[in-house]
Design goal:
The chain has a six-stranded antiparallel beta sheet with strand order 9-8-7-6-10-11, covered by helices on one side. Helix 3 runs antiparallel to helix 4. The longest helix is centred in the middle third of the chain and has 15 residues. It folds into two domains: 116 residues; 73 residues, no CATH class. Helices cover 28% and strands 26% of the residues. It contains five helices and eleven strands, in the order E-E-H-E-H-E-H-E-H-E-E-E-E-H-E-E.
């Protein structure tokens, strides 16, 4: 039997909802969650949805795999949404959201993004939440560490690479390929993030 497994982001950075619904109920379910929130958490937004055979079993499998990251008995998980999306893309199915996505190309893209993001961790470099980093392109731009790979800038949570892209775009200084390894463009106490030594654990 076919149905939809979906991922929704929330107002809390790093907290996502993994759920399932019947194909005919999907749009109504999304509108309801976006309007009313879930489990006292607000700001739910559609992130990814795929129609699958045996969707009920597959959702149960996801909940089992990520059980250690689960919030109580809810469908909320403290996880990187890209990790869940990558796993769902490995299933044979029909992508419902976003629309007009090539599943194979999207899987390759997500795999590459996750591979790159896994190369850098603030925590492995000894930084902690609240530490401030400085943008190399403008010493007046400060961002605050708020997660293992996330910073807060102007009240919004960012990964380093898209923030770097935005900052160069604002200044009309984008490179030809438009791709940036964020850790090469920010410093901490005068040292480029990429050059900071990993702490020994």
């Amino acid at each position: 039997m076919k149905g939809i497994i979906y991922i929704m982001t929330t107002a809390v950075s790093g907290l996502v909802k993994i759920g399932q619904t019947g194909t005919k109920n999907y749009q109504e379910r999304m509108r309801n969650l976006e309007a009313n929130g879930y489990y006292n958490v607000a700001g739910l937004k559609r992130f990814f949805a795929i129609e699958l055979e045996d969707y009920d079993d597959k959702e149960s499998l996801l909940h089992d795999i990520f059980n250690k990251h689960r919030v109580g008995e809810s469908e909320l998980f403290a996880l990187d949404q890209e990790l869940i999306r990558q796993l769902l893309l490995s299933f044979k199915g029909n992508i419902i959201y976003p629309e007009n996505i090539d599943q194979e190309k999207e899987f390759d893209k997500v795999s590459q993004v996750r591979k790159q993001s896994n190369l850098f961790s603030f925590y492995k470099k000894g930084l902690k939440n609240g530490d401030e980093i400085i943008f190399k392109g403008d010493k007046n731009v400060l961002a605050k560490v708020v997660g293992e790979r996330e910073v807060e800038y102007e009240g919004q949570v960012w990964k380093l690479s898209p923030l770097t892209y935005k900052l160069y775009e604002q200044r009309g200084k984008l490179n030809n390929c438009g791709a940036y390894a964020g850790a090469d463009h920010f410093t901490y106490r005068g040292t480029k993030l990429r050059d900071l030594s990993d702490i020994v654990t």
